[in-house]
Amino acid sequence: MAERIYRTGIVLSGGGARGFAHIGVLQALNEAGIFPDVISGTSAGALAGVLYADGYTPGEIMEIMKTDSMFHYIRPVVPKEGFLQISGIEKILKDNLRARKFEDLKIPLFVAATDLNNGTIEYFSKGELLRPVLASASIPVLFKPVIINNIHYVDGGVLDNLPIDAIKDKCEFVIGSSVNPTAYEESVTSMMQIAERTFFLSLSREVREKSAKFDMLVAPVELKNYKALDPVKAAELFVIGYKATKEKLKYLDVKRLIASEKSVRPGGVSSNTIS
Fold first, then answer.
1. What CA–CA distance (Å, rounded) separates 262 from 152?
2. What is the pTM of this model?
3. Measuring CA to CA, how many Å separate 96 from each of 13, 17, 26, 121, 122?
4. How far is it, in rounded angstroms, from Cα 61 to Cα 82?
5. What span, in angstroms and rounded, lies between the C-alpha atoms of 115 and 119?
6. In tens digits, what is the pLDDT along the chain, a chain of 275 residues?
């Protein structure tokens, strides 16, 4: 088994605008004294993850990703490869990211994106930062693929919406935040609705299949009442993630976890374990 070099890792799923709940999860963890040492994210989770890894607080991330700026810059294009350009998110990241490479981030980050040409998942963690994050958030059909080294990449959720595999052998304790529950949808008639619904339904199996791999998994069922591409209720989504995490923390020996984090040796991990 590979040496575990991080004490606490966090995995952030895709889920569109529901990703605002991730920020509430991070806020609750930080208030409890838990600060992830490494992050793995897909799509919305990659967006929240990259800003957190860049040194922004959850409150600052909420301000950066607020509704009136995040989706204002999405521009429709002729539907050849995708219906929308991801220019709004790109502008936000260009305006706010201080790091230009993964190596410049304050916290190590793994970003999952789907390689359309080879039909495989790729976990980016080195080199250029912006394009892999954009690729991870490019929902197929709705957004154009992002080309990196002549390979077409789309949303990592196509193949891995809860990318624990990127860090599971590197951490002693892994927290998951999943924001893509499903529920009855009364009207699914337009092409856009069908594309969105089909994609997000395909992601729902992840929680069932991977839940046992996490030491703590936050997956609020209330999120089923919020549309994945409607960010107007960002504050409500934040609160849902925050409250769900607070509830989970009641059943976790937080004091022991924090004490173990403080005893981590440089270049290695604490000898303490969590039962």
1. 42
2. 0.84
3. 22, 19, 19, 27, 25
4. 27
5. 5
6. 456 789 999 999 998 888 999 999 999 999 999 999 999 999 999 999 999 999 999 999 999 987 554 444 444 454 555 455 666 788 889 999 999 999 999 999 999 999 999 999 999 999 999 999 999 998 887 788 999 999 999 999 889 999 999 999 999 999 999 998 765 555 555 555 565 656 556 666 666 778 889 999 999 989 888 877 666 788 999 999 999 999 999 887 766 666 565 544 333 333 332 32
If you search the block for the tokens 């605002």, which residue do you land on?
20
Helix (H) or strand (E) holding 149: none
Joined together, the tokens standing for residue 92 give 């936000």
- Structural tokens at position 82: 């995708």
Q: What is the CA radius of gyration of the chain?
A: 18
